[in-house]
Amino acid sequence: MTYKAWVAKAAKQPLELETVDLGPLWTEDIEVAVEHCGLCHSDLSIWNNEWGISQYPAILGHEVVGRITAVGPNAKGLAVGQRVGVGWNSGSCMHCHQCMSGSHHLCPQVQPTIVGHRGGFASHIRAHWAWAIPLPENLNFAEVGPLLCGGITVFAPLAMFAKPTDRVGIIGIGGLGHMAVKFAAASGCHVTAFTSSENKFEDARRFGANQVVSSKDTAALSNLGGSFNLLISTVNVTLDWDAIIGMLAPNGRLHIVGAVLEPIPVAAFSLIMQQRSISGSPTGSPEAIATMLDFAARHNIAPQTEHFPMSKINEAFARLQSGEVHYRIVLDADF
Fold first, then answer.
1. Rounded CA gap, 258 and 183, in Å?
2. pLDDT digits over 144-172, tens only?
């Protein structure tokens, strides 16, 4: 079967609309007609080959919402016509220790949707059945896309490490951080938002933050020393790591989900004497994504988005690269 897709021929080159041959459907795969697909900063990073793992030609897009159009003979639990989401990963081996214990996203053979695989800036996408997540009916499907990557990325550490009684800090109020604030507030935590942009203070409060602090205010950071049970860093820039770690309470944790490319220097005694931790995580397993979607539906959580028709994809990339998006972009299929 052939389908239409927006293709990146090389790093930083404008995407071009092409006809692509998908070949036969694998026995455990499903095929989805794309309705909406979020444009994530990770798409920009792969398009620019910032991480050195890009493969061209590339079909990007990994926050896919659409209806199933075909089901392989060995696919389980899904049916043609069902609406599903496909996120950062579209397959895993299904037999290793990680997959068999429910951590499919940590599989050594996990298949990223946009590296070595055709992504969702296209009329159709394919994925292993386990990675096509049925969507709760009471979600606004046009807004779901960013939850499938950015949403699970910030929901996962909250689910793993936060209690409703905890004081949680979210560093960076952008595409990831604004969803983190919403999830943390809905979880019952006391939420502090850290941002370098004063024009985001009111937004952060609207998203559910109890307190908003300028990340450039060193005195304010110092006054918060020993305060937080959990700090989630969503930014991809170097921070004053000593000051950040100093804000952790005893047994506190700094969790990294923003892909900062420089090493993070750590003074051992700042961890040892207060029994603090530093950790990180990628997205989440299929079951974790399904749990996150149920939580979002229950608490009416959705990202704040800007919509473009997919035919304006190059304009959407330019908008994302400008850093002015509030707060996620969704492309609506218009093939």
1. 17
2. 999 999 999 999 999 999 999 999 999 99
